Each structure stands twice: as structure tokens, then as C-alpha cells.
Amino acid sequence: MIADKARFRAARKLERAAGFRLPDHVFSGAFLESLGKAINFENLDRRMHEQLQAFFRDFMDCKCKNAPFCGCPERKFTLTIIEFRELGLDHRQISAHLLDEYGIDLYPADILSFLEDSVHMLEAIRDVAELQGREKLAENAIEHIKKIEH
After folding, report:
1. Cα torsion at 61, 83, 103, 43 (round to 10°)?
2. Model pLDDT for residues 85-107, shown as the tens digit of each residue
3. Cα torsion for 102, 108, 113, 115, to the nearest 10°?
4. d(C-alpha 55, C-alpha 59), whole Å
5. Phi (first) and psi of residue 8, to 5 degrees
6. Which pLDDT belongs to residue 36?
7. Which pLDDT band holds residue 38 (cuts at 50, 70, 90)?
8. Which branch of life, at top level (predicted)?
9. What DSSP string runs through 56-80?
10. Considering the chain, what percentage of its residues have pLDDT values greater than 90?
11. How many CA atoms lie within 13 A of 146 on its CB side?
12. pTM for the complete prediction?
């Protein structure tokens, strides 16, 4: 899963502000739990504060009972990468945007591999939908494939 490869670039800075060791994998349970409960945001520099606010706004806004361990942050992150691609950003631009907006480091090659896997999954969805006569679903899959491959 692409979310498992995402790292918070300033994790060591965040550790100093928190006063304890944090994993640098953004979507690890310990990191998500620490962000929500143990970090004093007043101790952060302006840029890191902005990045974490954007992270909370875009990925952590969830009403699930067991949030943040419900999988919603990871799904939102995955969808965000696909949306950036469909807006025309390439894998390098997506990587740069994630770093700038959220402080998340993700290798462009990992993004490219994820997008290729996504196309293969959509092709399988299209094929099954066509076999089952679900034309609207097949059309939606084809539309997303075109946007990702463009």
C-alpha cells in the first residue's frame, strides 16, 4: 500500500517538539496517535504547523469510532494521489506537492508504481463490470484509466 511508504520528512524535528521518539512513517498507528494527542502545536515552527494542519484537514477528518485506526486516513491519502494524477500532475510533481503541502516524503518511483498498479486494478474492474453487464461501472473505470494514463 502506498500509504505505508509515506514518511514525514521533519519527524526528528517533531520528536524534539514532542519530547519523545516518533516513527517517521506517517500512517503508522503510533505516529497518528501521537499527532492527535501528544504534540503541543505551539512548539512547532510555522511551516510544520501549517503542514500538520493540512494533514489533519485532508486525511484525519473522520468520524469513525476507532479513528485514526479505521483506515480512512490511508484511503484519503491514496485517493489524493490519484486525484493529483487525474488533475495532470506527474509522479515527480505529486511527490513535490506532498512534500510541500504536508511534509510527506514519498519517492516518485513509488508513486509511479502505485499509479500503474491502480490502472491494472481499474482494468480488472472494467473487465468484470463488462462481463456482468454493468456498463456505467465499466465506463467509470475506463474514464479513470484515461485520466491516470494521460
Report:
1. -20
2. 999 999 999 999 999 999 999 99
3. 60
4. 6
5. -90, 115
6. 67
7. low
8. Archaea
9. IIIII----TTTTTTSHHHHHHHHH
10. 63
11. 6
12. 0.89
